[in-house]
Amino acid sequence: MIKQTQSDTELEEKGWATAKTLAEALPYIQIYDREIVTIKYGGHAMGDEAVAKLFAGDIVLLKLLGIHPVVVHGGGPQISAMLNRAGVKSTFVDGLRVTDDATMEIAEMVLSGAVNKEIANWITRAGREADVRGVGLSGKDAGLLTVEKATRIKKDPDSMIEQVVDLGYVGEPKVVDDKLLRTLINDPEHDYVPVIAPIGVAEDGLTYNINADTVAGAVAGKLNAKRMLLLTDIAGVLDGDKDLIRQMTVSEARQLIEDGVAVGGMIPKLETAIAAIEAGVEAVVILDGRRPHAMLVELFTEHGAGTLITRDPQ
Ligand SMILES: Nc1ncnc2c1ncn2[C@@H]1O[C@H](COP(=O)(O)OP(=O)(O)O)[C@@H](O)[C@H]1O
Ligand SMILES: CC(=O)N[C@@H](CCC(=O)OP(=O)(O)O)C(=O)O
């Protein structure tokens, strides 16, 4: 005979609370059943290895709950650290890294090599009991991402004359070939999770560096994802008073860029959110990926997390 102790009672209480949480998630699990959710995992969000492993566990959970997660990752801080070590200087224009030959070589090494394979491996390890497997890809695999050279126009603050800024090997996705992604997602026998590095190829065969937010938006749009989650290092989008915006429309997002409230890395995030929604994605959420289980809070609870961006009311 084994008698109930105080610690048994506490564990039992915890079990009841867990069961309640699971039951409350049921309506949300049904909403996302067999839907594609694109997750952009930013370089800042993946900084802490323990949290990164929790992220991999959450991706496995999504897959086992019947959702199809597609991960697009960044690695900006990791590229900067490697460039620093190599003594290569880096500059940014509107959140985009100006990319010359040396920068391109290091960016591809870091993104398609170290970061991509690490995330795929974490997912595979987190899912090994259920045979969920992360598959690391870059835009170079199976013609996934064809790009065109990106340019930016800047106004000279003194003369107010507009100038075209050459960003070097910075690309913008022109064609997303989703054949391989769909093959992986729909494989009837295996639970594959595509993990995509933001590297693409232009028509002339040259390699280009792409902002990871932009890739996530293009992939989410092509796959008609139900949601795109942009995991970053801030609670969400902040307004002019530095208060968190809980929800906004595409027009309001555009206004934040115009007003200069969204600057730096937030610009490609909002631009990609707008483009993805216009391409058919139902909603985009910008949230803090450093917080453990941020994706689960967003997808499976009533309040959600971060900033939700939706289309303008008709
Ligand atoms: N209005 C804004 N609200 C929130 N963050 C903003 C805003 N404008 C600029 N940012 C900056 O954008 C950053 C997120 O972009 P970035 O550093 O490129 O993230 P990631 O590496 O995750 O892609 C935030 O840490 C913040 O410094
Ligand atoms: C053109 C461009 O800016 N490319 C990015 C690609 C990585 C990225 O976007 O990483 P985060 O999402 O972590 O910022 C870069 O070189 O930093």
UniProtKB/TrEMBL annotation:
One Pfam match, given by its short name, reads: AA_kinase
Q: In which pathway does it act?
A: Amino-acid biosynthesis; L-arginine biosynthesis; N(2)-acetyl-L-ornithine from L-glutamate: step 2/4
The Aspartate/glutamate/uridylate kinase domain is annotated at 37-287
Residues with site note (Transition state stabilizer): K40, K269
Name the InterPro entries on file: AceGlu_kinase-like_sf, AcgluKinase_fam, ArgB, Asp/Glu/Uridylate_kinase, Glu/AcGlu_kinase, NAGK-C
* Highest taxon, organism lineage: Bacteria
How would you classify this enzyme at the top EC level?
transferase
**Which residues hold substrate?**
G75, G76, R97, N209
Q: Which terms under GO biological process does the entry name?
A: L-arginine biosynthetic process via ornithine
Q: Which GO terms describe its molecular function?
A: acetylglutamate kinase activity; ATP binding
Q: EC number(s) for this protein?
A: 2.7.2.8
Task: Name the catalysed reactions.
Answer: N-acetyl-L-glutamate + ATP = N-acetyl-L-glutamyl 5-phosphate + ADP
Q: Which family does it belong to?
A: Belongs to the acetylglutamate kinase family. ArgB subfamily.
Q: What function does the entry list?
A: Catalyzes the ATP-dependent phosphorylation of N-acetyl-L-glutamate.
- Database matches in NCBIfam families: argB
PANTHER family found in the cross-reference section:
N-ACETYLGLUTAMATE SYNTHASE, N-ACETYLGLUTAMATE SYNTHASE, MITOCHONDRIAL
Its protein name is: Acetylglutamate kinase
Q: Which organism is it from?
A: Asticcacaulis endophyticus
